[in-house]
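Subject: for your reference before the review

Hello V.,

The reviewers asked for a structural picture of the protein, and I figured it would be easier to keep everything in one thread rather than splitting it across files. Below is the amino acid sequence we used in the manuscript, unchanged from the supplementary table.
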Amino acid sequence: MTTVTADDRPAWREARILADLGELTAQWLEGRIASVPGCYGPPDIEDPALIPLLAALNRAGFVTTASQAGTSGPGSGGARWQQRAAVEAFTADPGLIQRIRQGIRDYGLYVVVLTRSRCPAGRRTAAWNCL
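And here is what came back from the structure prediction:
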């Protein structure tokens, strides 16, 4: 079973560097291509207003694999419910990680960085390397 559409497959096959993956992921988020590896169809973005930001992150070398909007409100049974905003991504640029850390430190947000040595053993492959 293929994980990308036949129309998108050539572009993904031609991707050679992280910037290529970021550009294709940005195009998928914007609806210009129909699929990414592992997701056959459009993105499931909780807040469509985040799409321009996520696309820009991908084009800047922070290739996103998952995200969620921060929300707060009534949950199950009327109890208060909060969800932190989150983005999971790859980058090969340690300087970018530092810029992200500096940019968010005043907002009560967290950055968790997995280096290759701290990456779960099952993810230490040529196709998926933690930072």
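For the response letter, the relevant points are probably these. Confidence is low (pLDDT under 50) at residues 124-131. The helical segments are 9-14, 18-29, 51-59, 94-104.

Happy to draft the paragraph if you're swamped.

O.
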